[in-house]
């Protein structure tokens, strides 16, 4: 009987450590702790060009992640890109004249939506719209413009 | 065929059984009767499918033709649960003992009781010790199967086979590879269990002397046919060459020393192909 | 030529009949699971031999794989000045691929081969046959508990492998090579998604555990009951499990991460 009870203890330890491992992966390794979808609100922003933005790209204010891109679609009338931002409801005090821009993290990093708070007293609500947007900087375009400019200056 | 065993009193009856493995015919339309309360032996040279016959009776193999009736049930017509219920009343002693190697002797004998009954552990202990006492190995209860000699393993397996108080036991080559003392012990056990518990026993063996000592009735099988049957005395006096060769152990006779082959001289002189 | 075709036909036929037997065996095994549940002792004993005895090899391998990933990842990433992403690289490789796959391969080698040998020997020594004659279904009594144990242990082992590996990567990355510890963890948390990465990794390991246990038990049950037959079956278990795990990993990866 002594033998079986040590065996039981070892099985118990094994199962417990496996579950601790799973929790570790869920809480420490992934984003489960930092952001869940249940308590968030959605606002839309229209961009002339959303560049390399993808669903699940981060949305941040002043360098802090407050949400993520939940959908990207195309408006065939205005030829604009409609980006839905899902923002953690903790951050419900964003002014309604907030600016959204598509930035790149580092030179080759991924693209994200950066919000810059305005001065309005009204806050963005669920289903609200961000009016002022700035498109992604397309590297090829920027380079092209730069080269074109410097060529003109040489003339 | 002259049937000196009356079918009415037989517990197991094999009727016109045919079975083959691959292209080899193991049984060719044979019929046997096993009388209640008696020890019936099946004898024959190795490779005649004696073990196969036990597996057919236990319902582990299916015959091509014919039927096997155990206590009024056609074994191969039963539903799975009915077959399992029937098997609880059939004990089988395998040649190797077939003890479960990860359990002690005690747990091995307790195994069928724990699987099939809801008896309290104290009752199981009593029953197991009784069964072990019957085979004379009560003192070996804490050993593991790998610590047992072949003869002890068989006796433990016998204790396990009688754990559920079956109506019959099938012994598969119980004497093979045993020293004379173990053989003696097993002969004594089979005989006394049969009398005390009122069992019906089927013994499959090619050990002429031991089997003749305990059997009430003997069938001699060779090449799928019954070549002789009767009480040990009748068998000894049989005029059949087959039976005589088997009982006396002559090297050549109706059962040839040589495996079938083409003519020896022709074979040596033939050239060409490798075989 | 005809000989070749004949051989091909014969091989095809034998592999199909084997697949058929295997499927039948799996159905029987799964339908035996309900009879295991009222007897947790059977399951517990198997969790011990399948799970606990694989614990050491899994955690040690996980630690070393994580440390190597940390080292190699650092050298590559530092060329681009992206050492901060080391955590993402280590964690994503472990959680998505290496954790489930390598732990399943180790599981097949450690627990799978042991299961095949055990069942094969039980068959060779007539223990399974003996059990049948005692009116005990060997599938329900012997096979199903082992299957359930393998199937339940695998995700736990894979999670342990990944967790230990990520810690190993951090030990090398920030302990030895000077990657910022905060960046290691925060980048990882920002990039790895609970559903897409962790859950998918767990699903993979469940599938692998299912397949590896099935193969190991079936090869043992189907083995030719001689010592040579059992040793061949053990080899087949390791080879077939490895092929199935790697093949299934490709299919699962395409389904799970294909649309990115």
Descriptive overview:
The complex is a heterotrimer of chains A (155), B (275) and C (260). Chain A is of the alpha/beta class. Chain A has 2 helices and 8 strands, in the order H-E-E-E-E-E-E-E-E-H. Chain A folds into 2 domains: 1-30; 40-143, no CATH class. An 8-stranded mixed β-sheet of chain A has the order 7-1-4-3-2-6-5-8, with no helix packed on it. Chain B has helices spanning 50-57, 80-87, 105-116, 121-134, 150-161, 180-197, 208-214, 232-236, 241-248, 264-269, and strands at 10-21, 24-35, 39-43, 65-70, 73-74, 90-93, 168-172, 200-205, 217-222, 225-230. The model of chain B is unreliable at 1-6 (pLDDT under 50). Chains in contact: A-C, B-C. The interface between A and C is medium-sized, with 27 and 31 residues.
CA-based shape of chain B: globular
The number of strands of chain C is 0
Q: On the 0-100 scale, what is the average pLDDT of chain B?
A: 84
Q: How does the overall form of chain C come out from the CA principal axes?
A: elongated
Largest sheet of chain B: 6 strands, mixed
Strand order of the largest sheet of chain B: 6-7-8-3-9-10
Order of helices and strands of chain B: EEEHEEHEHHHEHEHEEHHH
Spatial gap, N to C terminus of chain C: 47 Å
Helix content of chain C: over 70%
Largest interface, C-beta closer than 8 angstroms, per-chain residues: A-C, 27 and 31 residues
Beta-strand content of chain B: 15-25%
Number of helices of chain B: 10
How many helix segments of chain C? 8
Low-confidence stretches of chain B: 1-6
The computed structural class of chain B is: alpha/beta
Any idea what the radius of gyration of chain C is?
Answer: 21 Å
- Residue stretches of chain C low in confidence (pLDDT < 50, at least 5 long) are none
- End-to-end separation of chain B in angstroms reads 43 Å
- The helix-and-strand class of chain C reads mainly alpha
Beta strands of chain B, count = 10
Biggest pleated-sheet summary of chain C: none
Layout of strands and helices, then pairs:
The complex is a heterotrimer of chains A (155), B (275) and C (260).
Chain A (H helix, E strand, L loop, with lengths): L1 H28 L10 E8 L10 E4 L2 E12 L4 E9 L10 E6 L6 E6 L12 E2 L1 E3 L4 H16 L1
Chain B lengths: L9 E12 L2 E12 L3 E5 L6 H8 L7 E6 L2 E2 L5 H8 L2 E4 L11 H12 L4 H14 L15 H12 L6 E5 L7 H18 L2 E6 L2 H7 L2 E6 L2 E6 L1 H5 L4 H8 L15 H6 L6
Parallel strand pairs in B: 3-8, 3-9, 6-7, 7-8
Antiparallel strand pairs in B: 1-2, 1-4, 4-5, 9-10
Chain C lengths: L1 H31 L7 H40 L6 H39 L2 H7 L4 H39 L4 H11 L2 H28 L5 H31 L3
